[in-house]
């Protein structure tokens, strides 16, 4: 019930009261962005990669099919983070990395060194909703994993994706989403929502991202609902797939 959700939210906020206090004083966000989130994302990425590896291998298998007329594959990744997707991209792929947070350099450099089969074009500090530094129709593929949960606007981000893709290019996604509304998973997502969003740099637990994807103007869209279970975190339901411009 709504009352149980509010009561449990208050208990969780009490447990996280030091973070709420730091946030009130304007000190949490800069610390989170620079230190906490890059550190914790690195740890979560390792766990998540183990659980989602088979889905990512399957997802990115047809990436070479989207090479441009020149035979090159120009790929833009939104919210590159630590660069955990690099291992799945085909050899010779030209990668442009973007992230709103430039503080992932250490783990990003580590993953770049590990994946020297790719050409790294540039790193842009940019939000998914504003990719003005990327020319229209210049990309064969755009990739976005575990990012649409924290963008300001999913529909604006998808508009930018469609703008930068060439006709016939593809958008690949793997995102955690809201659980079935009648389930306990959804109940706990609602309980954790405000504190989770504060602690994890704006990450929203209850977005129904598949609806935004269905509303975007893709000529072809493949979405699969999957389960990626991580211990003690309310982000088990995921969607994975791709859309063609």
Automatic annotation (TrEMBL):
Keyword check for Cell cycle: no
Q: Which residues form the Methyltransferase type domain?
A: 76-173
GO MF terms here are: S-adenosylmethionine-dependent methyltransferase activity
For this UniProt record, the keywords arranged alphabetically read as follows: Membrane, Transmembrane, Transmembrane helix
Q: Does the keyword Ubl conjugation apply?
A: no
* Residue spans crossing the bilayer: 6-28
A matching Pfam family? Methyltransf_11
Q: Which domain of life is it from?
A: Eukaryota
What name does UniProt use for this protein?
MET7A protein
| Classification lineage | Eukaryota, Metazoa, Chordata, Craniata, Vertebrata
Q: Which gene encodes it?
A: Mettl7a
């Amino acid at each position: 019930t709504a009352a149980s959700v509010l009561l449990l939210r208050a208990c969780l906020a009490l447990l996280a009261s030091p973070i709420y206090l730091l946030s009130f004083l304007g000190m949490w966000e800069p610390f989170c962005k620079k230190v906490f989130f890059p550190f914790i994302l690195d740890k979560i990425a390792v766990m998540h990669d183990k659980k989602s590896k088979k889905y990512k291998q399957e997802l990115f298998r047809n990436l070479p099919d989207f090479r441009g007329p020149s035979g090159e594959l120009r790929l833009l990744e939104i919210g590159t983070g630590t660069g955990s997707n690099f291992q799945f991209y085909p050899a010779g792929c030209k990668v442009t990395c973007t992230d709103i947070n430039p503080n992932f350099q250490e783990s990003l450099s580590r993953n770049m060194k590990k994946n020297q089969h790719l050409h790294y074009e540039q790193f842009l500090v940019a939000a998914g909703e504003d990719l003005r530094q990327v020319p229209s129709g210049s990309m064969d593929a755009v990739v976005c994993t575990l990012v649409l949960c924290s963008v300001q606007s999913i529909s604006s981000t998808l508009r930018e994706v469609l703008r930068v893709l060439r006709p016939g290019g593809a958008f690949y996604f793997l995102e955690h989403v809201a659980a079935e509304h009648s389930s306990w998973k959804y109940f706990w997502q609602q309980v954790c929502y405000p504190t989770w969003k504060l602690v994890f740099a704006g990450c929203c637990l209850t977005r129904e991202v598949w609806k935004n994807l269905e509303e975007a103007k893709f000529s072809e869209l493949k979405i699969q609902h999957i389960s990626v279970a991580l211990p003690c975190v309310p982000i088990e339901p995921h969607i994975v797939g791709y859309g063609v411009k």
